[in-house]
């Protein structure tokens, strides 16, 4: 492609509303343009990168046994009513009516559509398992679109869905898709982790997020210092390393604590460490009160709590709820003498001795509190967030944290959609059974942004060879010079004949402008035809390393092959 013909509107200044590197550079380098908040057009360079990501995705999906199809972006509301998600999905679902006043949604995801197709077309276990995927635009009305392509209202996604008659079949496909995802993100050149995650609005259980490690990531990842264990901080299990206290129980005593209510204030007032205080929090689980106990230096993990209670909804109790069930306001809550409310404790709480807790009376706390003697625990579980330094759940190393950008997610949905939508098949005995499902998504446009976020320097983007929009950037340093122009034209035809996707900067611009643009768009290899064109010598520069050297034209083919092999 001749650059004089390429639509590549570059910007010299950093756009004021672009907060992260990927957003800034993709705008400045002419890969994307914003049409509205969270809505972008992909210009020719951006579209070429998208196409390469999509090809990688297709190759690995096809290799994993998935078949490509295409479903409508416009979805009937009736399908979402069948699954129960029309209202529960929330305001992110873009809803609209047609001229006949029928309700529709713009596809945020396609579980309902694919389930309706399979239930109508597949009737026998002999047709299962099935694994189908599409690459399509999705729509979600994000409250706060930001970070460019990383959180938008319209984005490109690969979503796959599998259907099974046996759990073993779902398990096998799940692992196959996990492996396929690892291959995809490795081929995209990303530093990622597959982490245990919560299912959120999609539903189901047993799922992994694929996270690109990045300081701008919105998710916190807990991972091992010595193994490949990784989990979203909400899902990371805590390995109990504490042992039961050897202290002899002391006599229970109620003490005045005046206005001290939170853990820090009580710790200072009573001169005890937070680890000696029982933090007592009242929650409403599907409308029923639950008193949750954790150590004062720990935080309640509401995802773990919700899963442990098998609850649909967990909310912190209001002040009115606290007065109704415990006869006190938050800040003085404790487990002593509680009888009509279920008490669930983190696994570390029963190991505490002579602890401090609220007395269910404003301005007072108990000291020398001991479980079993002074209060009952109905249920014990891992209820807290993991912290750095905790033991890794696989027994290898300790936990450290990093931020991550989610680029992919795989779920075992089970029967979350197939049961309410009656996706049934006849088994080998002729009996109706409900299909089990898996769901597997990749943010294609988000992956592009994650690659840009991870591959850049102060001068611009640095595309990995697998995704670069062009492979070689040929620059005629001075297009008005006859020798340079003639040699550049000759090399352009030669590079194309050798199979390189070449961008040829033939513009009548100053050399500085050309070099700046070349650095900005970040093609892997640059060939510059300059003052030594008459001698048959050009300069080759590697974008990532910055290494450059002069090469006789007669040796250019072998030099490019050598550099190409280094980059692969």
TrEMBL record:
Entry-linked InterPro entries: aa-tRNA-synt_IIb (IPR002314), aa-tRNA-synth_II (IPR006195), aa-tRNA-synth_II/BPL/LPL (IPR045864), Anticodon-bd (IPR004154), Anticodon-bd_dom_sf (IPR036621), Pro-tRNA-ligase_IIa (IPR002316), Pro-tRNA-synth_IIa_bac-type (IPR004500), Pro-tRNA-Synthase_IIa_type1 (IPR023717)
Location of this chain's protein in the cell: Cytoplasm
Gene3D superfamilies: Anticodon-binding domain, Bira Bifunctional Protein, Domain 2, YbaK/aminoacyl-tRNA synthetase-associated domain
Keyword Ligase recorded: yes
Entry EC number(s): 6.1.1.15
Pfam families: HGTP_anticodon, tRNA-synt_2b, tRNA_edit
UniProt family annotation: Belongs to the class-II aminoacyl-tRNA synthetase family. ProS type 1 subfamily.
Name under which the protein is recorded: Proline--tRNA ligase
Lineage: Bacteria, Bacillati, Bacillota, Bacilli, Bacillales
């Amino acid at each position: 492609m001749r650059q004089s013909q390429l639509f590549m509107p570059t910007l010299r200044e950093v756009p004021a509303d672009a907060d992260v590197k990927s957003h800034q550079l993709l705008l400045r380098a002419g890969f994307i343009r914003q049409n509205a908040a969270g809505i972008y057009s992909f210009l020719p360079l951006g579209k070429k990168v998208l196409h390469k990501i999509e090809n990688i995705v297709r190759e690995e999906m096809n290799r994993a046994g998935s078949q490509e199809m295409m479903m409508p972006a416009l979805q009937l509301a009736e399908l979402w009513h069948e699954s129960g998600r029309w209202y529960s999905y929330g305001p992110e679902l873009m809803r609209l009516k047609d001229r006949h006043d029928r309700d529709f949604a713009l596809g945020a995801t396609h579980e309902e559509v694919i389930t309706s197709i399979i239930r109508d077309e597949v009737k026998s276990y002999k047709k299962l398992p099935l694994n189908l995927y599409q690459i399509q635009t999705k729509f979600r009305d994000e409250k706060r679109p930001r970070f460019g392509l990383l959180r938008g209202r319209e984005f490109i996604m690969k979503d796959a869905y599998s259907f099974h008659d046996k759990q073993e079949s779902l398990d096998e496909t799940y692992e196959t898709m996990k492996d396929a995802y690892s291959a995809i993100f490795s081929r995209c050149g990303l530093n990622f982790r597959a982490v245990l995650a919560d299912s959120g609005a999609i539903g189901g259980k047993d799922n992994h997020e694929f996270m690109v490690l990045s300081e701008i990531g919105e998710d916190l990842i807990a991972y091992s210092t010595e193994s490949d264990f990784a989990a979203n901080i909400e899902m990371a299990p805590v390995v109990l390393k504490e042992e039961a206290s050897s202290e002899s129980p002391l006599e229970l005593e109620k003490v005045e604590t005046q206005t001290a209510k939170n853990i820090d204030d009580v710790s200072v007032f009573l001169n005890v460490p937070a680890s000696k205080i029982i933090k007592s929090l009242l929650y409403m689980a599907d409308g029923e009160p639950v008193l949750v106990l954790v150590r004062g230096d720990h935080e309640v993990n509401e995802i773990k709590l919700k899963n442990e209670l098998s609850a649909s909804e967990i909310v912190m109790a209001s002040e009115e709820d606290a007065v109704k069930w415990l006869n006190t306001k938050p800040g003085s809550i404790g487990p002593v003498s509680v009888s009509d409310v279920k008490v669930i404790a983190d696994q570390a709480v029963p190991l505490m001795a002579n602890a401090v807790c609220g007395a269910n009376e404003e301005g007072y706390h108990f000291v020398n509190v001991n479980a079993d003697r002074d209060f009952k625990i109905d249920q014990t579980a891992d209820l807290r967030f993991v912290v750095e330094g905790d033991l890794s759940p696989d027994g290898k190393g300790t936990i450290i944290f990093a931020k991550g950008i989610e680029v992919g997610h795989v779920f075992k949905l089970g029967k979350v959609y197939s049961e309410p939508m009656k996706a049934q098949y006849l088994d080998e005995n002729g009996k109706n059974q409900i299909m089990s499902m898996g769901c597997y998504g990749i943010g294609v446009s988000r992956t592009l942004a994650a690659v840009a976020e991870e591959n850049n320097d102060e001068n611009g983007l640095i595309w990995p060879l697998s995704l670069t929009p062009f492979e070689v950037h040929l620059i005629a340093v001075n297009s008005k010079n006859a020798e340079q122009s003639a040699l550049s034209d000759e090399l352009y035809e030669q590079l194309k004949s050798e199979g390189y996707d070449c961008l040829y900067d033939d513009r009548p611009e100053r050399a500085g402008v050309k070099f700046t643009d070349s650095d900005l768009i970040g093609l892997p290899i640059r060939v510059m035809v300059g003052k030594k064109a008459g001698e048959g010598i050009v300069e080759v520069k590697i974008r990532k390393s910055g290494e450059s050297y002069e090469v006789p034209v007669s040796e250019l083919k072998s030099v490019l092959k050598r550099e190409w092999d280094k980059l692969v």
